[in-house]
Specification:
249 residues; alpha/beta; Rossmann fold; 3-stranded parallel sheet
Length: 249
């Protein structure tokens, strides 16, 4: 099981041991799981992985400080691929990188997904990147999933107030479309995760909140109004009043 699930960390500056060469970093999983690669073939496997992620195999003896941020993240991705996993958990894998480098890394992840038949659990705050790479999306607030669905369902037909607020903040390049878009500004501060509100955790910032929201934890389910319908609106949402039209006071 551990071999089949690997991790790509957020910060390429701290996730690589500065005292180890690239060859040792990428080859370390083989020390833990020697059955994957015999000792005689490990160096060549590491070189092959460097080539797969777009780095020169001759860099195998270099140290992390000799690489840029984007190159270090590629090294982290190569390490994640070493054991040929089925699932890679990518925790904010591009948030610490420049925008131009982000696009390169995202394109690399997409290419590797097809080449290695991978599934990603992609954790991110940037909704434009999430839509670009994800087939299914789960929106979380204060440690609890509040809405799940396909990318089309979430982005084109959001039903949870928090999802609607998030999407209203995504930059729109078209000035005309930007003028006609409703911007949702949430009031108040995010509650402490150590002491979340009763009932619905989003209720202290929600314009739809009523007494029921403080008393009952909403189930993650298809809203009643869409339960017997087909279409993008019929997806799971943890809101007592998800079917109500979005009206911001």
């Amino acid at each position: 099981m551990r071999r089949n699930i690997q991790m790509v960390f957020q910060d390429p500056y701290t996730s690589l041991n500065p005292r180890m060469t690239v060859g040792d970093i990428i080859g370390e999983p083989y020390e833990i799981h020697p059955e994957v690669a015999p000792k005689g073939s490990r160096r060549q496997r590491v070189k092959d992985l460097l080539d797969v992620v777009g780095l020169n195999p001759e860099y195998i003896n270099r140290y992390p400080h000799q690489f840029s941020g984007g190159q270090r993240q590629r090294i982290g991705i190569a390490r994640g691929l070493a054991l040929r996993p089925e699932v890679i958990v990518a925790d904010e894998p591009v948030s610490a990188l420049d925008v131009s480098v982000q696009a390169q890394v995202i394109n690399l992840l997409e290419k590797l997904q097809e080449e290695f038949d991978l599934s990603y659990v992609f954790i991110a705050h940037d909704l434009s990147i999430v839509r670009h790479i994800s087939d299914r999306v789960g929106v979380m607030y204060l440690g609890r999933i509040v809405e799940t669905g396909t990318d089309e369902e979430i982005y084109d037909h959001p039903t949870h107030p928090y999802t609607q607020a998030l999407l209203s903040a995504v930059p729109v390049p078209d000035p005309e479309a930007r003028e006609h878009r409703e911007r949702i500004i949430l009031s108040g501060d995010v509650p402490s995760p150590a002491n979340p509100p009763s009932g619905c955790r989003f209720r202290t910032r929600c314009w739809k909140a009523r007494e029921r929201c403080a008393l009952e934890v909403p189930a993650l389910a298809v809203p009643a109004a869409f339960r017997y319908e087909e279409g993008p609106a019929a997806h799971d949402s943890a809101c007592h009043f998800a079917e109500e039209k979005r009206v911001v006071p």
